[in-house]
Amino acid sequence: MLTLTQGHLRQLETCPRRYQYTYLDHVTAPTDPAMLERQRWGTQFHQVMQQRDLGLPMADLLREDPALETAVNGLLAAAPELFGPQPDGFRQSEHRRTLVFNGYGLTAIYDLLVLGATSGQIIDWKTYQRPPNAAQLAQEWQTRLYRYLLVETSALRPEQVSMTYWFVAPPAAQGPPTPPSSITISYTAAQHRRTEADLQRLTDTLTALLATGNALPKVDLAQGHCIHCPFAVRCQRSSERYGLEGVMALPAIADIVEIPL
Q: Which residues have a Cβ under 8 Å from the Cβ of 242 and sit 6 or more positions away?
């Protein structure tokens, strides 16, 4: 049974061929060194937050990176209600949930999940600046899948579930640090039904494409996705990715899938 995460769904909907290269063929794409460094910092931040929630020491990790300590302390000061004692309910960092859906295993790993008798709060840490607006976030597959799975695997109703993104960026080289910010997205029964219908459509499409035994189709060039794709050269669409001066257009940091611990 194939597993589908929010990253799988996003790439499958954007371009089936990119999904194939990344998740079926396991092709490694070139990566900007600066982007790798941002990913490393983000992974460390997630590790620190997980260790804090587990009551494990963080001193060694923070000692290695003063910027990391500044970011963590900034978040703790901005959202103290998230980190206070919680005698009742359920709370877990890096919490995994899986649901069998239409022949696939839908999977989500929550950075932090806080459950009460009549509420479910999903927390996600994002380690980049310039957060998108709430309307854009609500359309992202991470938001949609995470809320859907929580409702389908619990007794909670959609109206009792919310997802909050906290944006924590590493301090800039100059100037004061950017304070953490958050966006909370609620959920409705209508959104739940729409997500289920889109999941059904995508999984039906993937099943049909895999059954042919052929390479999965490429996205229509008119969609404009190739200019940001690391597989443009492999797909012989490099002219869409490289400008006249040969400058490579790298994907936005917001499009990078964070690696779960």
A: 232, 248, 249
